[in-house]
Write a structure and sequence with these properties.
Shape: globular
Helix content: under 10%
Largest sheet: 7 strands, mixed
Structural class: mainly beta
Oligomer: single chain
Number of helices: 0
Order of helices and strands: EEEEEEEEEEE
Strand content: over 45%
Radius of gyration: 13 Å
Distance between the termini: 39 Å
Length: 122
């Protein structure tokens, strides 16, 4: 089981940026696909981005393409989510998760972090 801990959230004005981090335990972290999801109040959890174990391939939700970038450092066991040009509608709790499948389906992700809050003011 991989243990995940997110950090880097906060309050930012519209147009601002943050870098979210997801620190993982476990020596085989690089074998997992990493994903970021978010959940706004009263809404379902939604896919944001995912990255292969090697970091060679990525995929994004249409709503964040061109503004968010997912990356990973397998030496440090961290998956990052750089979030730029933030909008009020990006306000949510952001979660990282891992899976062995290339999918945006949250039910396929087997380990989850506790989440980090991102709040964007207008």
């Amino acid at each position: 089981q991989v243990q995940l801990v997110e950090s880097g959230g906060g309050l930012v004005q519209a147009g601002g940026s943050l870098r979210l981090s997801c620190a993982a335990s476990g020596r085989i972290f690089s074998s997992y696909i990493g994903g970021w999801f978010r959940q706004a109040p009263g809404k379902e959890r939604e896919f944001v981005a995912r990255i292969t174990g090697s970091g060679g391939s990525t995929s994004y939700a249409d709503s964040v393409k061109g503004r968010f970038t997912i990356s990973r450092d397998n030496v440090k066991n961290i998956v990052y989510l750089q979030v730029n040009n933030l909008k009020p509608e990006d306000t949510a709790v952001y979660y990282c998760a891992v899976t062995g499948r290339w999918t945006s389906d949250a039910t396929a992700y087997t380990s989850w972090g506790q989440g980090t809050q991102v709040t964007v003011s207008s």
